[in-house]
Amino acid sequence: MDKKKIIVGLSGGVDSAIAAYLLKKQGYEVTGAFMRNWDAIANNDISGNPTLDEPMCPQEQDYEDAKKVADQLEIPLLRVDFIKEYWDNVFMYFLDEYKKGRTPNPDIFCNKYIKFEAFLNWAKAQGFDQIATGHYAKRVDKDGMTYLYKSFDQNKDQTYFLSQLNQSQLSASIFPLGDIDKHEVRAIANELNLAVASKKDSTGVCFIGERHFKEFLFNYLPMKKGPIVDINTDKKIATHDGVFYYTIGQRKGLGIGGLKDYPDAKSWYVCKKDVKQNILYVANDENDEHLLADSALISDVNFNAIRPENGQQIYAKFRYRQKDLGVKIFLIDENSVRLEFDQPYKAITPGQAAVFYDDNVCLGGGIIQEVYYKNRKIN
RNA sequence: UGGGGCAUAGCCAAGCGGUAAGGCAACAGACUUUGACUCUGUCAUCUCCCUAGUUCGAAUCUAGGUGCCCCAG
To answer: What one-character-per-residue DSSP string does A248-270 give?
Structure first.
């Protein structure tokens, strides 16, 4: 039997490097691919971009690192761009959501449309059997289905970002890091003497990078000042730069401090956005009732493998790196569900992903559409 | 132009003669492949509106300015 031909997305980081190494060790015929999906200059990513003035743009630096890794592992490295696809399928969506006053999660769409669609299709066309990535996630084949499980390293688990993948995407993918933790990844990289063994984990929007977020959005969304209103008194207490720059539960960046009428003032938190009237509502207590929700309507629902039962008790994650929270799931139709929370949860934000779990099984996920508290829609 | 009150960091605010609390904001770092939250750290030193004085020593007392507020006109 021929060796399976695998192409690994090499980002220039340590995770994908070790993913490639493990596959090679397992006997696959491994090729690396470096993807570039964001052109800062062409995409007008100017304000809030800390790396504009650097002699080598960060993607080229990452490419150099990926090249070093490929050379050390003795695998070929291909290069491919999906700049247009990224702009059309991820970034436009991202901006549209912001314009609606919601808080999108671009990386979930990046996986759905770029890494596991554009890239996957490209790889197949190049004659590869499967693609692999350095995601911390586990693929489990059982009963003729391909399931997505949380990674062994619970702290790094990235199934949240993979929740929109379907059967054909999952079955064409390999996640070599599913059974080891980050320390081990670093340790292997050190043993191999990899150039990127100690490279800092990358953060920020995938393929774009770290940005001063509000300034980054200034590039694409016009500033539009309006009132910040105390939701408990309905009084204007400050001015904002445009409701879409803020997200529910946000504390930093409001610039509200030391108000005469609030001698015991604590920190202020965003609890509601009125896009139409351009009003930002805030509450003066991190435990304010206006931050709570007890049920939500989830749209764009995808189940990775099987559909849960109607009314089943499961867990949901409403933000990456947030604890799994107990919910009951009610199936409404093919693409939407309603979640009833075991108890009120804080800062549930429309536009963000709700990802469903049954213990370690990632069932799938969707986009938070409407949020309710005590049967009243609060967004 | 009579009386009273107040002037402390970006904002709110302690201090009442002994060598500038605290909170919010901001900034930095940690955490993090969204965006938040969270945690840690920094943040008044010819300084407490200005000037002069009393005192060993004043943000704190005195006098005079300046500005703002309230009451009465």
So the answer is: TT--TT------TT-TT----EE
Closest CA to A270 of A237, A310, A302, A317: A237
Q: Is the CB of A329 under 7 A from strand B?
A: no
C-alpha span between A337 and A364 (Å, rounded): 12
Residue A304 approaches strand B within 7 Å at CB: no
**Is A206 considered catalytic here?**
yes
User: Which amino acid does the sequence have at A132?
Assistant: A
Question: Which nucleotide has its C1' atom closest to residue A212's CA?
Answer: B35
> Cβ within 7 Å of strand B: which of A 235-264?
247, 249-260, 263
Q: How far is the CA of A236 from the C1' of B60 (A)?
A: 37
**Residue A189 and residue A22 in contact, taking contact as beta carbons nearer than 8 Å:** no
Q: Is the pLDDT of residue A21 over 70?
A: yes
How far, in Å, is the CA of A283 from the C1' of nucleotide B29?
Answer: 27
Strand B-contacting residues in A 339-368, CB cut-off 7 angstroms: 347, 349, 352
CA atoms within 13 A on the CB side of A369: 12
Q: Indicate left, alpha or beta for A311 from its phi (over 0: left) and psi (-120 to 50: alpha).
A: left
Residue A207 pLDDT exceeds 70: yes
Instruction: Please check whether strand B approaches the CB of A303 to within 7 Å.
Output: no
The reply to whether the CB atom of residue A104 sits less than 7 A from any atom in nucleic acid chain B is yes
Tokens of A258: 């030391």
Contacts of A81 (CB under 8 A, 6+ apart): A35, A36, A37
Residue A344: strand, helix, or coil: strand
Which residues are bridge partners to A9 per DSSP? A33
Whole-structure pTM value = 0.91
Separation in Å, CA A282 to CA A49, A127, A225, A237, A350:
29, 54, 16, 9, 16
Whether A362 is catalytic: no
Q: What is the mean pLDDT of chain A?
A: 91
Contact A344, A292 (CB under 8 A): yes
pLDDT number for residue A111:
95
Which amino acid belongs to residue A339? Answer: L
